[in-house]
Amino acid sequence: MGRRKSRRLKQNIRRFKRKNVDVAKFVKDLYVDNGMAYISCNVDGYNDIISRYSVKGYEWLNHNFVRFVDENANFVPTEYPIILEICGHRFNKAECECIEATVADYYALELGDAQMALERNTMECLVLFAFSIISVISIWLGLRGNIGRTVWEILIVFLCFFIWEFIDSFAFERSELMENKLKAAQVASMKLTFQEQFEDGPVEPEEAREILNEIFEEETLVPSDEWE
Question: Considering the entire predicted model, what is its pTM?
Fold first, then answer.
């Protein structure tokens, strides 16, 4: 009995190992239409998007709304522009403008954080590269002079440390930071649409072109109070 159970468990493990999913197909079916990715969000009212703790003029996004958008955006490949469809409630003009500005400001700050992290990495790589060169020069000068074996070994250790840290920062950490910035730029560029009821239908080519023009019209993001 025990042997049969053990054999069955091993067979289950082998089946799980063979199981795969076509991620691209799921993404295309769930999000992509006419070259753009759509995230549809159902809300009951204004405070589902804007935190009820916000004060007028300094609005902030509802945490649950941000989490919903981010979790869906993570599945969207970075080559697709994102359209955020807000459904389920009729917002007045002032509410729509406030939501658009708050979403734009929030994700512009996210992009700014990713941008600064990449800039810090650039500075770190330059410093490590400079110290690596200094270590090489010091070792070369030490070989031409009379320095103790202990000092020479210390210089070798420093050189190995700086080179390893440079490779780690430039080859590994930097690629991740660049990917994070690309994803942040994609989300920061998304366009919002409002509809009282969700409508699942194809987008007309002309409408798609207009949306793409709006998304890529301005490459430099500015705070909402500078839009006017």
Answer: 0.77
